[in-house]
């Protein structure tokens, strides 16, 4: 087999008048090989098969099956051709499918990568893109299970983005995240764009749900739903998700609290995300923060949409419930019990409810992450009484200590002794020993009959 370089040299030397023998001696090849390449009987870089191609008889069948079903497993197809007499290995079979490119392209199921796409214009202040990002293996102290959830919002024009950590993707957590991220971005765009998440729209039709329509009206934005299977339409926030997962979450330590993690994300966005350079019509290239500051954003409403967030908590042994980096008291009878903490967005208090729905405590809301302990005076007194009632202040006993019987034990012992003496006297009065019976018995034994 000649390489492409040798094939080029052979054809050039032939045009210069060299004989086939001279070319073969020059290249160190056989004359028959040189003749075959000069006559275009062989192609440079492709080795001539030693024998008949064992795949050729099955070519039409494999192509027809993959045309009918582009997603047919190669192993399933291999089982079929083996039943038809194919005697080569599975790796050889799959290599033939790849080299011959027999599996057709399925456009509806293909990813966006590799497709032709057109640039999408994002005017300043036009659109904010939203998406949930699942973050695996959160710290165990958070109590969030296998995944944490990060709501990411990105300004489509400037690429400025912020995130909000949440325990779940339910609608109240979505609304809380929308409000928090919007305030961090600096204001509202004219439109919010989502994929087909069930908390925003009906996935089949793309119509906005009645509950989320009220949210959109509260903030004064229109809602845009991405068409199905159009991942490029939300490319700005998708790239932000990738950055959050690989540059921030990947290096997050295990001993960090939820509030510390949220503060860490905010710092990362300010120091790293906002410092990226972006094309700018004014400056040519400017930082994300500079471009974002020029966007005409609408002020956020003074109060958030009044959604209610509820999460389960376990009461500690000190009758305290942890919530957003602070601790709130409950009656001491509920120590180690399960309760539900509810907070209505915009209100400055939280309610602690039993699993049966009874409100057992209401506290003024402390700033998130302050680490303060908010305790009701009645709860403090009840806890102290409960603890003192079950606490013994007497001196513990030593292992080697002389403790003789006390007055109560000695009085009880005297009663037992008097009772035993009376019993012995009664027995002695009742027993009478008559020796005449023994004498008659002995006399009878000594008499000979």
TrEMBL record:
GO biological process entries: DNA integration
A Pfam family assignment: Mu-transpos_C_2
Domain Integrase catalytic: 120-295
InterPro entries in the cross-refs: Integrase_cat-core, IstA-like_C
Coiled coil feature spans: none
Record NCBIfam families: transpos_IS21 (NF033546)
Full protein name: Transposase
